[in-house]
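ok posting inputs for the adenosine-5'-triphosphate job
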Amino acid sequence: MGQTVLATIDLTKKYKEQTALEHVNLVVEKGDIYGFIGQNGAGKSTLLRIVTAMARPTSGSVRLFGESSEAGLIEARKRVGAIIESPALYPDMTARDNLEVHRLLRGIPGKACISKALALVGLQDTGKKKAKNFSLGMKQRLGLAIALLGDPELLILDEPTNGLDPGGIVELRELVKELNRELELTILISSHILSELHQMATKYGIIHEGRLLEQMTHEQLNEKCKQHLRIRVDDPSKAATVLEMELGTQDYEVLQDGTIKLYSLYHDVRRVSMALTSSGLVIEYFAPDGDDLESYFTKRVGGGFHD
Ligand SMILES: Nc1ncnc2c1ncn2[C@@H]1O[C@H](COP(=O)(O)OP(=O)(O)OP(=O)(O)O)[C@@H](O)[C@H]1O
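and the output
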């Protein structure tokens, strides 16, 4: 386990009629690009707003950089940069002047951080151009520059690709990966589109109706979404021998309950079933399995709360 940057402990938020978060235990570790995925209204913004002190929990707590007391959290939040909702931009000002205002508001000493932040997001050459004349992608990058001003160690981005065109989405994704790599920034990024997060996230949390259904690594998600033939026979170890000796594959695994997941020969269903039956095995179950990302997500949230 890496070093925990952010943990929520049984975090619960209730509005009058509505429970927005219910006992959420989310863990973000140093160096993660944590993809926080959930449909609209699932509770993503509510959690991010509580972490950044824009809202208070009904019960439960937040631990940030090891701090969970009121005073400790005030200090810890200085190490966090965030864009939640639209970034506060001054439309009639240049990128540099926008950053200068935010620098003064936040009491960050020295102007050097401004050039640095502009260079990080690729806005160093926008000169006299006013923010109101920026493309949406540029505005988003200016928002990022503002969030990066205080050299944060954790960056929180709430649905940053909303409204961006495909080119803007690619740009943002590359930027997020670069910030993570070059500055060793830990990044918590929310979205309602799993495939959008998939090309950058190292870890995922799926939230649905205020409950965190699942947390997993990128590798675990890929494993779940890998296409395979799911096979159950009366004698799994004999079947394994058939796969290896007759079909020449070792690309399979035998689960604890004896189910075989065969990752190769996915399109050669007939050959596999013939080899098994002609060896005298009784096939109890035999079907292709594995989802693409969006159908995995839909299935997971459609099925409600299982764990
Ligand atoms: N201030 C509020 N008062 C009452 N209900 C609220 C308030 N803020 C959020 N909610 C409700 O809490 C639930 C979670 O909302 P939240 O904004 O956190 O979801 P989300 O996952 O961020 O979705 P979206 O992407 O649509 O913002 C929703 O049902 C929402 O209507």
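notes: The mean pLDDT is 91. The pocket of adenosine-5'-triphosphate is lined by residues 15, 18, 20, 38, 40-46, 159, 192 (CB under 6 Å).
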